[in-house]
Amino acid sequence: MTRDIIDVHAHCFTSRRAAPAVSCGLDKLRGEGLRHMAVLGMVNTHLDSETIWNLTPRAVENRGDPLLHEADDLLELARLTGPVILPFVDTRHMWGDVATLLLGYIGRGFRGLKGIYLADNENDIGVGNVPDTFGITLEQYQRREWEIFAFAEAHDLPLLYHMDARRYGDVMRAMLDDFPRVRVNFPHFGIGRSAFRNFLDRYPNVYTDLAGMLPHIRRTPDSYRDFILHYPDRVCFGTDTLLYAPEAALDYIRMVRELKLPEEIEARLFSGNPASYLGRALGAPAPA
Ligand SMILES: [Zn+2]
User: Fold this and answer.
1) Per-residue pLDDT, 177
2) What spacing in Å lies between the alpha carbon of 239 and ligand 1's midpoint?
């Protein structure tokens, strides 16, 4: 049984005040084999406490910074809780020169990047869109997203990018053609497995994760098992856990074990694939 587990997809939504509870939850997960958890923290220097919820589902219970500027708390939680948390910067609300801002965040200890493609109101998480929220054009928004991909590729950083392969397949293809070396995880099986297959078949640096998919996988385990077996080196373990209740990830560990994958495939899913995707992000933080 795999004793090394890396969760590539968790969220912050809490503050440094919760450090003792976060530590306790992470200890339980460590007992089950968790070694690392990539935690996505948002940055917001521009939007007010109302507008900020244009781009984040309101159903999420936020126990952290009311403006969802989570960067400082997340870095502090990572420092206080030992080597488990790998902080990723969530760029959805980022405003300003992309390269300058990201260099600053990486210099402070962030290990990877998170984005989400919100070009219009037809996105799969039912939130608003970035162009309207910031009063910019679609072209300006796309330029920002291109700069995020360019930065990830140039700095050898893992990029977790939420994007619906069914609706935005053309844009996804254009991004991957422009940045063939970027290691990108399009989570949740690219939202639609049949559309997403084409990307896994064509682009060797594309990964996915099973975060947030637990009810679906439990409903039709065989079809997900087949998918994982068909792409044994692409699917990563992920949970969508919120950091104030990290032990919720235990259910995901249990669910994967219930799939009864061949031992070697289970090990790839739990740690081999996450390690290939994360690359240097698993090592020491970049010098400031
Ligand atoms: Zn997520």
Assistant:
1) 98
2) 8
CA 242 – ligand 1 centroid, Å: 9
How high is the pLDDT of residue 2? 58
- Rounded to whole angstroms, the Cα distance separating 281 from 217 reads 28
- Tell me the C-alpha distance between 28 and 22, whole Å: 10
Is pTM beyond 0.90? Reply is yes
Domain that holds residue 178: 5-278
Pairing state between β 159-162 and 112-116? parallel
pLDDT at residue 285 in the model: 53
Contacts of 270 (CB under 8 A, 6+ apart): 2, 4, 5, 6, 33, 237, 256
Q: How far is the CA of 54 from the centre of ligand 1 (A)?
A: 16
In a domain, 237, yes or no: yes
DSSP one-letter code for 270: I
Q: pLDDT at residue 1 above 70? A: no
- Rounded to whole angstroms, the Cα distance separating 235 from 9 reads 12
- Per the structure, how many domains does the chain have? 1
* 34 assigned to some structural domain: yes
Structure tokens at 233: 């080196």
Q: Mind listing the pLDDT tens digit for each residue in 250-262?
A: 999 999 999 999 9
283 in a structural domain:
no
For residue 78, the one-letter residue type is A
209: domain CATH number is 3.20.20.140
